[in-house]
Structure formats: C-alpha cells, structure tokens
Amino acid sequence: MKVSYYPGCSLEGTARDYEESIQAVCKELEIELQELPDWNCCGATAAHSLNHWAAISLSGRNLVIAEKMGEDVVVPCPLCFNRLKTAEKALLGVDKGQFQYTLHGKVKVWDMANFISQDGVLDIIESKVKKPLEGLKVVCYYGCMSSRPPKITDAKDCENPVSMDRILKCLGADVIPWSYKTDCCGASHVIARPDLVFKLVGKLYQKAAEVGAECFVVSCQMCQANLDMYQDKVASKLGTEIYFPIFYFTELIGLALGNPGVKTWLSRHFVDPLRLLKGKNLI
Prior knowledge:
Helices cover 47% and strands 10% of the residues. The strands form 2 sheets. The protein has a 4-stranded parallel β-sheet, sandwiched between helices. α1 packs across α13, α3 packs across α4 and α10 packs across α12. The two termini are 30 Å apart.
C-alpha cells in the first residue's frame, strides 16, 4: 500500500517519538509513506487568525504537491489535518479563484488514525499481533481538531470518533467508553494561559479516573504534550496524586507487534509509561 505523507513540523522536533513509531509501524504493516517533497508548514496554529489568504496558501501548496504525486495524503497531526482540509474546501469551493493555487480534488486527505483504522489495515494488524495488550485499561482521547467542525473534516462521527477505539480493541486492550474524548485540552493556550489549560487537563484526568482508566491514548502531539508534560503541576493544583501515561496509538501498535523501538519512543515521555507496562507484563 502506497500513500503520500505530510509529517508536519512538530514531528521533526518535540514529537519525534510519534514520528519514529509511525515510520516503524507503517513499515511493519507494509504501508509505504512517501513524504511530500519540499513540504512547508501548514500555518497552524496562528496563520488562520492573522491572514486567511496566507493560511489557505500555506496548506494549499502542500495539497498541490500531493496531487502531483497522485496518491492520497496521510496526515498524523490533527492540527495539520484540519488546516489541510480547510484549504481543500477553500480551493474547491465557490471562492477558489481568489487563491494562488489550483486544486482538482483528485486525492483524499486522511487523518492518520482514520487511515489506520480501515478494515483492511486492521486485518493486517490483527494478523501480526505478538503481544496482545490484555488488561491495559485505556481511554481514547481525540481532542477537538481531527473531527470538528464536520463541514471541514467530513467526519461522520464528530462527537464520538471511534478510529483509535477500533485500533486498540484490535490490539486486545480494554477500551473504556467515556464522554470526554473530544473535549479540548487547551492546545497552545498553555503558553499564555496555563491556568486555563491546567483546569481543562485536570478535568480530563478526573473523568478518566472515574471510569477506571489507567492511561490515555492519543493521536495529537499537542494533546500528548499538555497531558504528559504538566501532570505534576496539575496534580499539585488539585492536591492529589496523578499517574496517567499518555501513549500515541502508534506506540501501542508497535508494542503489540513486538517492535524493538518501543522503549526508545517511550523514554521521551515525561510521565514514565514503563511502570504501568511492566506491571501488566507487557514489556
């Protein structure tokens, strides 16, 4: 299976663990990721609040490159996915003539988790699982960018996305239903308003604890950062102890498939996941 691939900026820096797990897992699943040549930043999160034309042009250029490659484009970052989908709608819409790029709508823009959760890919994953994640109690946390607004993302289940639920069930994990899978984590507001973000994240911890979860599974590096980096500060604010490892879904696929890179990816996390995994005899 061959697709084009738009990694986005953060996967080359703060989210290296996500990028490395994606590359390793896709190799095992025989998914050939062809990185867009000379891709550029999509403009998230600031461009669209400053200049609409520039925001559409930044993401539009990447879409034009993907069309020239002729393969559907897979996007791991939900913020990037949202911006590329926004550009797609603009460049194919009634105002398309006002922008510098021309799009023909020949390729599909995929959110990475949705792409991996297709039936055919899940069948491949299931056939390759070496270490089922039995006994691992997870909540899947999608955040707000990969599915909303549905008029941009084309999501049919924008309030109850299930892509990661399907993947984790395939891996043998105990996926716990909960009502906060698309709540916002505050994203980059953590720079200017950490108090606001700590309140939002604290609520997510509390609600996950209430349903008996032991960890979060995410597909967004901004959500992963906010839930992982500030856990001790939020715990201090709430006056309680908190221990929730925050996994990328691709890291857990790699774990279940027995990939040797798992410990390296997990070593970059702020909240140590190995304590939980060792207790479950999963690593």
